[in-house]
Amino acid sequence: LPRRVADKLGIDIPNSADRAGAHRPLHTRSLVKVQDGCNNFCSYCIVPYARGDLWSRPEGEVISEVSRLVAGGTQEVVLTGIHLGLYGAGGSTDLGSLLTRLIDIRGLGRIRLSSIELNEVSPAIVELIVESGKICNHLHIPLQSGSNDVLARMNRHYTAEAFVERTAELKRRIPNLALTTDVIVGFPAETERDFESSARLIETVGFSKLHVFKFSPRKGTPAAGFSDQISNDVKDARSAALLGIGATLAEQFATNYVGKDLSVLVERRQGNYLSGISDNYIRVYFEGPDDIIGTITTVRVTGQEQAMLYGKTGE
Ligand code: SF4
Questions:
Q1: What is the pLDDT of residues 267-302, one digit of tens each?
Q2: Which CATH number among 3.30.750.210, 3.40.50.12160, 3.40.50.720, 2.102.10.10 corresponds to the domain 1-136?
Q3: What residues are in contact with ligand 1 under a 6 Å CB criterion?
Q4: pTM reported for the whole predicted model
Q5: Which of 38, 87, 119, 163 would suit a FRET pair with 294, their CA atoms being 20 to 30 Å apart?
Q6: Which residue has a Cα nearest atom 4 of ligand 1?
């Protein structure tokens, strides 16, 4: 899923990522693939059949790769994987251990996790985010549905109540945390009530960004054969409704930072403004000199337009 991950993260990547050459230097942000494969068998997903067993790059190899990227100007690495939270599964390492070593790389400004399952955000990872100052206060935790009936049919291993409880705890623990997510609408037999449960849960959690997917049957997966497939019209309507909620939530999240300082990785010039992404994943535009492109800088937020923020640097 690297392209999907890159799309989520708003960055362009060249085609044909592979295991060996897993990094893609992208100006100041680089994707580093550390894991592949999944054995979760969500009922709608082809990945476990297509990608096979869990596989993780050795820690030492990842460290060397990231060190080289940092020497080449990378400020932020985005760790990617099909099932990132299972990095190291079956071996002698895990994601917390990898992060601990990455934090020590001199010159690396930030580490971002592309996506992690609810049950895999361990206390050690939370501790590292809070204490290190290097791991972005941004967690992308796939929800998929806010209905327990639908979650069970999806073969997802959590309940809606657990999702709300756990994410609230993460928000309490991690200052200024951005929570983003994936949701599927129109899963077979999803009722209006199921859909409403998803919508209400999304509002309760207060995600700062939603990726909404209309269910599409994948040949060879159990869900493709489920009865009560949902019509495209209903999927379209549910998707549009969630996108509207997502836009409102993104705007509300950004509003919290007007008048405050954000740590921004300066990516490029766009007209009169420099543009970058904050550690908690808000697009920020501000005036400043070109020579800070590629650095992490503090921006005082002075204004907002929908989910985007405007500001100025300290100079
Ligand atoms: S949706 Fe994610 S966790 Fe579920 S089977 Fe697919 S890759 Fe694995």
A1: 999 999 999 999 999 999 999 999 999 999 999 999
A2: 3.30.750.210
A3: 38, 40-42, 45, 47-48, 82-83
A4: 0.91
A5: 87
A6: 42
